[in-house]
Amino acid sequence: MNRRKIDYDTAWSNQFWFSNEEDALSYCKTMQQVGYFKDYDMVAANIIAEDVTDWFNELTIDRGTADGLYDGCVVITSKGLVGIVYNAGLASSKVRCIVDEQNIIMARVFRNNALVRVRGMSNENYEHLLELDRITDQTTLYVGDEIISAESGGVYPKGLLIGTVVQINEDAQTKKRTAYIEPAVDFMAISHVYVLMPSETNQTGG
């Protein structure tokens, strides 16, 4: 099983997974900032097929059950949250991206920890945005706010960067607010990802 434990000290030496040193350094900083990743194993994977359009928002990666993957594994890059494995095969797996309409993620506003909901949405002209709703009257929200994952339902680790608020709308009658988020990950440009899985030690309580 080609399963690699996250190692903060040697992450820089594994920069062959990155297209440049800047991305490798970004990855190291990310891993240092999110210490809860110590409870996860990680498998690096390359994208071998993609269909990120108005109708299909999925990727195929070159890792599968032989590498320890299973349906429900979370997929990230050094930039932020990509999506979740939904069809793990022996040697490859399909990943549903967070921009897909089927995805609903409980999230928080990083600045004030307010709980919100993020939904994938079908977009025209390959403008892959996310919709932010369930914004309470008490929640302050501004363009430029960063949105991170909330630990909810045991699906996503908390604190993964989802994206940045780029637009906020308010219904004139109901005063209900809806916002739109630009994902932290450029889904038209990624070539490699990381798959997170609860570590075997953590699962066995060792």
Structure in words:
The chain contains 2 helices and 13 strands. β4 and β5 form a beta hairpin. The relative contact order is 0.20. The radius of gyration is 17 Å and the shape is globular. The chain has 206 residues and is mainly beta.
Task: Provide a short characterization of the protein structure.
The chain has 206 residues and is mostly beta strands.
The largest β sheet comes out as: 6 strands, antiparallel, barrel
Provide a count of the helices: 2
Distance between the termini: 20 Å
Please state the structural category.
mainly beta
Low-confidence stretches: 1-18
Helix content: under 10%
Q: Please count the beta strands (DSSP E, at least 2 residues each).
A: 13
Overall geometric form = globular
Strand content: 35-45%
Average predicted confidence as pLDDT: 80
SSE arrangement, N to C: EHEEEEEEEEEEEEH
Radius of gyration, CA atoms, in whole angstroms: 17 Å
What is the topology, as strand order, of the major beta sheet? Answer: 2-3-6-5-4-13
List its traits.
206 residues; mainly beta; 6-stranded antiparallel barrel; 2 helices; 13 strands
Describe the protein's topology.
Elements: E1 4-5, H1 21-33, E2 40-52, E3 57-61, E4 74-76, E5 81-88, E6 93-97, E7 104-109, E8 115-120, E9 130-133, E10 146-149, E11 161-170, E12 177-183, E13 192-198, H2 200-204
Antiparallel strand pairs: 1-2, 2-3, 2-13, 3-6, 4-5, 4-13, 5-6, 7-8, 7-10, 8-9, 9-12, 10-11, 11-12
